[in-house]
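tool_call: predict_structure(chain=1)
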Amino acid sequence: MPLSRPALLLRPDSRAVQDARTWVRAACEELGRTELLDCAELGVSELVSNALFHGAAPVTIRMRGTVDHPRVEIRDASPEPPLLPVPLALDDEDEVLLTVGRGLSIVANVSEAWGADLDASGKTVWFTPTVEIADGDGVEGVITGPPGAPPRPERLGPETVQVSILGVPLALYRGFEHHFRELRREVRLLSLAHAEDYPLAASLSALFGTLERQLLDGLGHGQLSGVIGTASNGERETADLHVRMPRSAAETVRRFIDMLDLIDEFCRQERLLVLARSPEQVTFQRWFLGEYLAQASGGRPTRWSEAQMTGPIR
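tool_result:
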């Protein structure tokens, strides 16, 4: 079943490790994966300790992935790759910290797969707990997504189209950007860690990369202008988005719309530890992406307010 337990914000003291162990134990029990408890708690002890010593606040723990391969993630605000933790002076009440100082080799020995995903605002160190502690060096970690310049959009040639997306509700737009980033990261990590179990993840990850290159300006870096409404606090509620895109990107957008529906079906079948989109999210995203398709084919823009009144989104 999709995991309903929210992420936990950890306090910056020695009790954070105990809190994280309690949280991950409850998450495993909620999924019916109690056989993972020992390895999950050991891995969490190391990664939370590492984040507290070498990372930056805030530090959070959450679980993603699938029921068969639940992935524990520790997030902190430092973009530096994970380092080995240092030994701590312990007292009788902090026996939970006894694993600190043995380094990430412990994580490697309690994981099916593990690694770090870096971005400009921090890093997520993750692992998929295994049933039994491995002998030897364990599995090798994978570091992905080093911070740096975003992928450059494809050079626009004569076959370009001006796309005007009118009356964009900015709250839904920001939610779409967040959803896009989360899905992109999810399928990338599944394709890296469990490619044999999820062959579709590699195809989806490649599609995300293509879409990001072709529509970089439209999906997060376009120019917002022409404010339509203003909230009571002075912030924008809606705006117009004007983007130039290669006409050939329309087919990528069409595939992406189908992919979002497919991922929702995976969620409803409880094959991913995330929730399917709400009806409002589905309606907005189909309208937003549908504007690329319609205008690439010569159609005229349809404002969001008009699209809501005309029934099903094309």
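agent: The two ends are 32 Å apart (CA to CA). Proceeding to next step.
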